[in-house]
Amino acid sequence: MTWEPSSLEEQRLDKLARLQEAGINPYPLRVERTHTSAQAIAAFEAAAEGETILATVTGRLVSMRDMGKTVFAHVEDGDGRIQLFLRRNEIGEEPHRIFRKLLDLGDFVQASGILFRTRTGEVSLRVSEWALLSKAISPLPVVKEREVDGEKVRYSAFSDVEERYRQRYADLAVNPDVRAVFRTRTKLVSALRRFFDEHDFLEVETPVLQPLYGGAAARPFTTHHNQLKQDLYLRISFELYLKRLLVGGFERVYEIGRDFRNEGVSYKHNPEFTQLEFYAAYWDYDDVAEFTEQMVAYAAQNVLGTAVINYQGHEINLSPPWQRMTLRDSIKKFAEIDYMDYPNAESLSVAVRKIGGNAPEGASWGQLIDGLLGDFVEPKLIQPTFITQYPRDISPLAKGIPGDPLHVERFEYFIAGLEMGNAFTELNDPIDQRRRFEALQEMYSKNDDELNPIDEDYLRAMRYGMPPNGGFGTGVDRLVMLFTNKTTIREVLLFPHLREKEE
Predict the structure, then answer these.
(1) What mean pLDDT is predicted for residues 364-381?
(2) 324 has which bridge partners?
(3) Which of the 8 DSSP states describes residue 342?
(4) CA gap 388, 414 in Å, rounded
(5) Residue 422: left if φ>0, alpha if ψ -120 to 50, beta else—which one?
(6) For the chain, give me the number of helices (H) and strands (E)?
(7) Element (H or E) spanning 110, and its range?
(8) Considering the chain, what percentage of its residues have pLDDT values greater than 70?
(9) What is the mean pLDDT of the chain?
(10) How many CA atoms lie within 13 A of 76 on its CB side?
(11) Own/partner pairs for 318-322, CB < 8 Å, 24+ apart?
(12) Does pLDDT of 468 surpass 50?
């Protein structure tokens, strides 16, 4: 697509040319800065009475009020904003004229001078000299404020919300609230790392490009290595590689990184997303559950200053202990059906359809039960809840429950009506693991998304001896949604995947 300047951009291009004719480089090589906006204001506030504070600040020009001989402007940087005060007789006629006539909102400037307080009480910089750092050719979207229920609410000029995501750079530039979301995201990831480090976990990195995919029920993205003439897959999970490390002697490992799943896009799904997984030797899923509730509460306390959050009108207490229910009991409670009364997929599918549930053709017994969970239970789980004991046929990597051939030691945890993560008492018997893999090959058709290839190298690793262990995975993006009160994953991804724009 070729860029065709708008009329406003043509005006700015004309100003760019006039700046260059005046001998001003609109994109200089060097920058000077002594203070951020916040540092400058803090230095002035801390100064003794009568003390002179000199400062050089930089930032984007976000407001300008031209009073003729005097110009009031604000520049914004990563710490906040500060007012500039420019007088013609103090900076010179030509610099004053150029600032008034050739600069636009969105330009980046550098300004030096003495800090003072205006008659209205605002700490400002009395500018003695200034320099242009970057000329903005395209005007940023206009952000307006209006009162809603007594509060000022900011509205972006993007008429199509998707344009906010397509032009995230502009969205960030004009919306401090959006920048705050991603600062919260960074703080969350840092808090999670601290928690694991404090509990003697080793952070590791496992392959993104894998010769086989596994560890989750998802369709992979496929790529090809030209020199090796080898098909490869973007990972759908870290699990099988992280558990190999337990075989190698590491007892507690975790990874925070990207997974890729070639599946639907929705308010809670993106083709690439950030996952946290950990595995701990000699733990079971009860140990993992206790650790999980401590981890989430710790993160909330460190990031938000409280373990009690408000999400979409619900007050949610993340403090341990969380409530626990078996999958069977939760479905009996919310769907009013006992799936154990239906011993096979055929009879269960009929019962599911009778209560208005989704029962796709060819779904297994476990898949139908998982569908009941999603349709009837998940939306009701507002407070943090562990749902435990899942069907064996949809949990091939989890240990079975003694005396129960149909269920395994697995939980998922839910908050605010969202499935947030998944955990097992991990299967460490290589013979049983092979049988499980082979049973899946027979159960699912070759085109089924649930079908993973048998990973012979993983089975070989297990044969060397894998310690008993508990494992866990959670979507970091969904935790960010929870912590920032956002209802779509697109709001917490800097650059979410979007369909191609129709021109």
Answers:
(1) 97
(2) 386
(3) -
(4) 11
(5) beta
(6) 15, 21
(7) strand 108-117
(8) 94
(9) 94
(10) 13
(11) 318/293, 318/384, 318/415, 320/290, 320/293, 320/294, 321/293, 322/289, 322/293, 322/383, 322/384, 322/385, 322/386, 322/413
(12) yes
Q: Which domains does the chain have, with CATH numbers?
A: 7-134 (2.40.50.140), 187-322+383-492 (3.30.930.10)
Could you give the angle at which helices 456-463 and 239-247 cross, rounded to 10 degrees?
A: 30
What angle in degrees, to the nearest 10, is found between the helix axes of 176-198 and 285-304?
A: 140
Type of residue found at 295: M
Q: Is 191 helix (H, G, I), strand (E, B) or coil?
A: helix
Compute the average pLDDT of residues 367-396: 97
- Provide the β-strand partners of residue 407: 391
| Residue 161 structure tokens | 């919300």
Pair 195, 189: CB distance under 8 Å: no
Instruction: Dump strand ranges (E) for 252-358.
Output: 252-260, 272-281, 308-311, 314-317, 323-326
CA distances from 283 to 400, 407, 471 (A): 15, 19, 8
Q: Write a three-state SS string for 306-336.
A: CCEEEECCEEEECCCCCEEEEHHHHHHHHCC
- One-letter amino acid for residue 382 of the chain: I
Rounded Cα–Cα distance for residues 142 and 157 (Å): 5
Angstrom distance (rounded) from CA 279 to CA 400: 18
Task: Classify the C-alpha dihedral 166-167-168-169 as positive or negative.
Answer: positive
Query: What amino acid occupies position 297?
Result: A
Q: CB-hemisphere CA count at 13 Å for 29?
A: 0
User: Distances in Å between the alpha carbon of 366 and those of 211, 338, 370?
Assistant: 28, 13, 6
Query: Which of 450, 421, 423 has its CA nearest to residue 437?
Result: 450
Q: Is residue 153 scored above 90 in pLDDT?
A: no
- Residue 253, strand partner residues: 202, 279
Does 340 score more than 90 pLDDT? yes
Burial annotation 82-112 (CB, 10 A radius, 16+ → b, else e): bbbbbebeebeeebbebbbebbbebbbbbbb
Strand, helix or coil for residue 59: strand
- Are 98 and 54 in contact by the 8 Å Cβ rule? The answer is no
Q: What's the pLDDT score for residue 148?
A: 47
Q: 């369709």: which residue's tokens?
A: 219
Token pair 């994109």: residue: 27
Tokens of residue 425, six digits: 């008492």
Indicate whether this model's pTM tops 0.90.
yes
Written as six digits, the tokens of 416 are 């605010």
Q: Mean pLDDT, to the nearest integer, of 31-41?
A: 98
